[in-house]
Amino acid sequence: MVEDNGKYIFGVVKMGERGQIVIPKEAREQYDIKAGDSLMVLGDEKGIAMLKTEVFQNIINQAMGGLTQ
């Protein structure tokens, strides 16, 4: 793992024939990702990103002033 001011490079992964990837152990530990966690996949013309759905929900809750559950 390479860290630079809160930004990380965890290495390279390959996608399998069924569209599956393995998230590197260091990334799972850094972001507390465990088996069974749900991840949201986001993207734009530059690439894709993933984050835990609970993190996304917390962002939405803050943006909505705590109105959503």
Describe this structure in words.
This protein has 69 residues and is an alpha+beta fold. It folds into two domains: 37 residues, no CATH class; 32 residues, no CATH class. The protein has a two-stranded antiparallel sheet. Strand 1 and strand 2 form a beta hairpin. The longest helix has 11 residues. The relative contact order is 0.12.
SSE layout and pairings?
Blueprint: E1 2-4, E2 7-9, H1 25-30, E3 39-44, E4 47-52, H2 53-63
Antiparallel strand pairs: 1-2, 3-4
Strands, count: 4
**Please, how many domains?**
2
**Element-by-element helix/strand order:** EEHEEH
Radius of gyration: 14 Å
Characterize the main sheet.
2 strands, antiparallel
State the separation between the terminal residues, measured CA to CA: 35 Å
Percentage of residues assigned to helices: 10-25%
Strand line-up of the largest beta sheet: 1-2
Q: Which structural class do the helices and strands define?
A: alpha+beta
Helical segment count: 2
Low-confidence stretches: none
Shape: globular
Could you tell me the strand content as a percent range? 25-35%
Oligomer: single chain
Mean pLDDT over the residues = 91
Entry summary:
This protein has about 70 residues and is an alpha+beta fold. It has 2 helices and 4 strands; from the N terminus they run E-E-H-E-E-H.
What brief labels describe this structure?
two-stranded antiparallel sheet; two-stranded antiparallel ribbon; 25% helix; 69 residues; 26% strand; globular; 2 domains; single chain; alpha+beta
